[in-house]
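ugh ok fine here u go
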Amino acid sequence: MKVCPLLLVAVFAVGCDHRSETTPQTATEAAQQAGAIKTSTDPAVNPNAAVMADFKARVDKYAELHKDLAKGAATQKDNRTPEQIEAQKAALVAKVQAARAGAKQGDIFAPETRPVFRRLLAPELKGEDGRDAKAVMKDDAPAAGTVSFKVNAKYPEDQPKPTMPANLLLNLPKLPEPLEYRVVGQHLLLIDSASDLIVDYILNVITT
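structure:
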């Protein structure tokens, strides 16, 4: 019996698709997928979608404000001297602080957001992975009492910013530039990396 070449191609293609569908995920891929679900703004997959959508709207609004303010004397240019870099950063800091003169804790991390963030981080701070994450953050932590937990305050330039372990970042919503997460002590900071200003914070997200 002759077999049609097209039929062979079709069978091979189906076999390839089946193998690709059943290829096991790596641990990293599984963690990324789980994190994406936990931080999704789609109510069909995430019961906290409304909170995540609100948080995304707030950080996006800040990113737009930063973009508008980072112009003129605050424009970040190439081929700058150290003196120009400092002058441009100082100009940006002044503009952001003026624009957010009335900013307070909770403007970005709304009250409804804080317990959700604590729940997202709690599982990642337990067991062996949790011990490793805490050790990473402790290794390059700033000196005790040097960071002022105050919105619109400068993060001290002479102090390190603790590394955010990958397992924590995977379980938090992605941020637009120039925002970044940092954990100092037991507290989660939201920092503008271009100006080193503290945008908002959540107290006591890390349990010892």
